[in-house]
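tool_log.txt
---
The assistant was asked to compare two proteins side by side. It first ran the structure predictor on the initial sequence, then on the second. Raw inputs and outputs are pasted verbatim so the downstream comparison step can read them without reformatting.
(1)
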Amino acid sequence: MAKPTKAAPEPRAEGGWQGLTVILASLAIIVGGLALASKAGVITFEHFSIVLVLRGPKSIGVFEGIMALGLMPLAIRYRGRVSYVRQLREQVIELLQIYPNIFSSAKSIDEALEVSISLMESPLRDLLERLRLVYRSTGDLEGAFKKVFSEVPRDVRLLLLSIIVVGRSGGRARELLELASKYAIDLDRMDYTIANRLRTYGMITFIAIAVFGIATAISLDLVGALAGAPTIQAAGIGTAPAAHISVTALLGMMYYTLLMLSTASAYVLAKSIDGYAPRSIEYFVELSALGTLTMLLGLLAMGVH
């Protein structure tokens, strides 16, 4: 066993004080912004039946802007996490394709790790350096792996397990590594194909939200036109007096519907494309902003205020 050295620090968890700080900052922006906007009269409300809704395009636009601004720190944080995991996964697949040759030419696991470190870039290089230091200080490769890669996504850990397995595989080490390498190549090819298809489905979702915004504007323009008749019955739709129709209240309800659609769609996109639910915050901001923009522009074009 190599001479003991100082063990590398454990990787920090995804959450912690930094994550809590970002969450509190987002809440402060949203709550503070809404409080100031309401006090200034920029955001107003009215009732649609028993539901309190935002009143008019101006209130909806300001509310959407404050919400997007408040959620942006969280969106940026989780986007960074997704980029980190994606880059790490690509590097692991790359390593597994060359590791059989590294292991065959190395005299020990420690030397194989040293060569791998020299060939990789961050973030995988940093993790391998920690793994090597912990292994050299304890002599327990499996324990070092669990300690260093505990915060790494499960699929990445499973790919890297071949490095651990070869340490106790005897003469079959080369064979096992070649199998792992072939699996990594096939997985990389399959992931590329699936990712492209999922992104196509994602674009369809964005288009659907945009269409919903435009359809909302057209519907509200129609309601406004019908409200000009003495009664809705004159237009052939029921018997309620036209005065009872509040276009702004109906707009508020449609905006709430848009928020619910954006929430559900964002979660599906985050889980299917990235496999990471917190990424839904970013998708929600994008979908909600797109739907709100198309809705308000449609209302502006049709002269609905």
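(2)
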Amino acid sequence: MAQIRLQILDDNGTELATKSYNLGDSLDDLSRIEQQIETLRPEILIDITSELLSAEQSKHEKNTFSKARSSHGNNKDAQWVISFFGS
């Protein structure tokens, strides 16, 4: 069974995801392989978009959290309030 493997890397070469797609049997010439890839193209593009958005969201959340922590550490007027509820 023919298979293609898609590896998604960031700008630094870090692997974000690896996806495999089965192309099926009886793909004995380049034209049939190309047709099957074109059939899978919408699914592949959805997967790539999803992986890239997830990676960017994770990166953004990490940066936002780091900035929030560092700004609290530098702010001498910051106050922490701890409340306990219960009996």
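---
observation on (2): Residues 30-74 form the longest helix (45 residues). The chain has one domain: 2-74.
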